[in-house]
């Protein structure tokens, strides 16, 4: 169709259907980019806050469980809440092994953290690592070096069951087979006297404290619990008593409880670990047969002990005092030897 006098032509329906296309100007592009950036930034912040909350929760959980390492002043650590699993702490503190540990820490630093917990008053109490703490304290006192003024530790914020504290304390040394049977027995005895634990029975506690050990080892520990309880402090060097010796002496004491008093009296005269063990050996060896009854009974009155005076070895038992020496007694004038024996008897008869 041709155009009219005004120069218009009919509108093409195809042109009506075409989408109008407009280019975004610089201002529009900037606004759109800013909006997208804000949306993205808001999402990132929301995600970051969510992650921070999750991390904080995990950290608190790890801290409460004692999985976070912290530096604690050496002077803030107490060892008053739990008894130590060592019988002679002063000997350990001055031992060659302690000197070796101090040399290692001085050269390489503290490699293994100790373990602490907080008591009811919020104070740091030692659970594991008595030797490391002692080594650091000694180094700090000896050198004044600030490197040794604090200790790396795991601190359990949440309260553990009392029995778990004892188990954790001995676990490390038990695994390393570093405790004697007497020391393990002593832990059970001390735990039985812990009013907060409320156990009361040391023998029963052995099964709870040392449940990871073989039942035969637990049986040995129970024997030492009986031995230490019966002798009640009369054993001067309990760590020196071997497993077999301690178990056998406990067995014999159970069979003849009346022998305890005599054995305690003889043990009181032992001044060295060797003398102590010689007394225990003699106690085991000193048995006799009752032919009429077909039974064996202990003659505790004949328990012997031995000691040295200079180069002379003295063996004492009921009715006998034997002196073994390089001295030729037969060459000594009889009157002089008699005066020596009279002086010996005079001292024995002193009141």
TrEMBL record:
InterPro entries: Chromosome_partition/occlusion, ParB/Sulfiredoxin_sf, ParB_N, RepB_N
CDD domains xref list: RepB_like_N
Record-level GO BP terms: chromosome segregation
Protein name per its UniProtKB record: ParB family chromosome partitioning protein
Composition skew (Basic and acidic residues), residue ranges: 42-60
PANTHER family registered for this protein in UniProt: CHROMOSOME-PARTITIONING PROTEIN PARB-RELATED (PTHR33375)
One Pfam entry name: ParB_N
ParB-like N-terminal domain residues: 74-143
Disordered: annotated segments: 1-60
GO cellular component: chromosome
Superkingdom of origin: Bacteria
């Amino acid at each position: 169709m041709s155009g009219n006098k005004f120069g218009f032509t009919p509108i093409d329906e195809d042109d009506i259907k075409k989408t109008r296309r407009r280019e975004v100007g610089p201002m529009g592009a900037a606004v759109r980019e800013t909006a997208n950036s804000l949306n993205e930034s808001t999402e990132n912040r929301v995600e970051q806050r969510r992650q921070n909350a999750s991390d904080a929760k995990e950290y608190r959980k790890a801290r409460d469980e004692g999985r976070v390492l912290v530096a604690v002043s050496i002077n803030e650590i107490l060892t008053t809440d739990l008894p130590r699993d060592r019988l002679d702490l002063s000997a350990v503190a001055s031992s060659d092994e302690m000197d070796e540990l101090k040399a290692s820490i001085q050269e390489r630093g503290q490699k293994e953290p100790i373990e602490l917990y907080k008591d009811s008053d919020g104070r740091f109490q030692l659970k594991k690592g008595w030797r490391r703490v002692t080594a650091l304290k000694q180094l700090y006192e000896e050198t004044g070096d600030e490197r040794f003024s604090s200790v790396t530790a795991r601190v359990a914020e949440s309260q553990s069951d009392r029995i778990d504290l004892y188990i954790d304390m001995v676990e490390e040394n038990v695994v390393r087979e570093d405790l004697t049977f007497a020391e393990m027995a002593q832990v059970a005895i001390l735990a039985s006297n812990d009013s907060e634990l409320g156990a009361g029975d040391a023998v029963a506690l052995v099964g709870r404290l040392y449940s990871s050990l073989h039942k035969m080892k637990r049986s040995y520990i129970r024997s030492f619990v009986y031995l230490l309880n019966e002798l009640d402090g009369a054993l001067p060097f309990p760590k020196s008593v071997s497993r077999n010796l301690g178990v056998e002496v406990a067995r014999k004491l159970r069979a003849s409880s009346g022998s305890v008093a005599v054995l305690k009296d003889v043990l009181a005269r032992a001044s060295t670990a060797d003398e102590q063990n010689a007394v225990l050996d003699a106690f085991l060896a000193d048995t006799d047969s009752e032919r009429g009854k077909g039974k064996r009974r202990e003659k505790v009155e004949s328990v012997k002990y031995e000691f040295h005076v200079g180069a002379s070895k003295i063996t004492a038992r009921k009715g006998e005092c034997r002196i073994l020496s390089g001295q030729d007694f037969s060459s000594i004038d009889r009157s002089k030897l008699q005066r020596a024996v009279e002086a010996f008897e005079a001292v024995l008869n002193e009141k």
